[in-house]
Design goal:
The complex is a heterodimer of chains A (111) and B (110). Chain A is mainly beta. Chain A is built from no helices and 11 strands. The chains are: A mainly beta (111), B mainly beta (110).
């Protein structure tokens, strides 16, 4: 089954404690992206990757890092999380031919 | 970069009536326009999309229209049903992925 898998689904952490949210896709997509969703602000792009070892900033990259060492994985790293990063995060992969698929989301709370 | 505006932010319609959600985009290089439906607590799901070489596309009760000259596209839902209640997002795609509108909360009144 074609899918984008994110983990964990829920995470509560404390300010400053490094964390990683994983994202994996099994559709051999070159393009992957991370979004955060906040009430009234819609889905905003954090980082995206056009292929292995190719990453670029989206609209709200501050406080985040990503890596793309293999085609299927695109982890999101928060090296020193802060309360303003409390949000719902979605990973997506796809293209303009077949469309984009989203993961199930990760609800992050930073206290 | 691309900017996508979506209206209205909330839309309430009677069950059985039609609903229309409108979006505009700024980058004439955008050539792929998907629409996503997001139910509470779930991921956005693609419901229909249109490419810039097509003016209209229909799938049962859902249709999308695109006006490239005016840089706007719209989602039309006919004969609305309770299960259509959700948040709908439009998006415009360039080489670096999707830029989303802020969403429309569609409420179907019984």
């Amino acid at each position: 089954e074609a899918q984008v898998t994110q983990n964990p689904r829920y995470l509560i952490t404390v300010t400053g404690k490094k964390l990683t949210v994983t994202c994996s896709q099994n559709m051999n997509h070159e393009y992957m992206s991370w979004y955060r969703q906040d009430p009234g602000l819609g889905l905003r792009q954090i980082y995206y990757s056009m292929n292995v070892e190719v990453t670029d900033k989206g609209d709200v990259p501050e406080g985040y890092k990503v890596s793309r060492k293999e085609k299927r994985n695109f982890p999101l790293i928060l090296e020193s999380p802060s309360p303003n990063q409390t949000s719902l995060y979605f990973c997506a992969s796809g293209d303009r031919v077949y469309g984009y698929t989203f993961g199930s989301g990760t609800r992050l709370t930073v206290v | 970069g691309e900017n996508v505006e979506q209206h209205p932010s909330t839309l309430s319609v009677q069950e059985g009536d039609s609903a229309v959600i409108k979006c505009t985009y700024s980058d004439s290089a955008s050539n792929y326009f998907p629409w996503y439906k997001q139910e509470l607590g779930k991921r956005p799901q693609l419901i229909i999309d249109i490419r810039s070489n097509v003016g209209e596309k229909k799938d049962q009760r859902i249709a999308v229209t695109l006006n490239k000259t005016a840089k706007h596209f719209s989602l039309h839902i006919t004969e609305t049903q309770p299960e259509d209640s959700a948040v709908y997002f439009c998006a415009a795609s360039q080489a670096d992925g999707l830029t989303f509108g802020k969403g429309t909360h569609l409420i179907i009144q019984p």
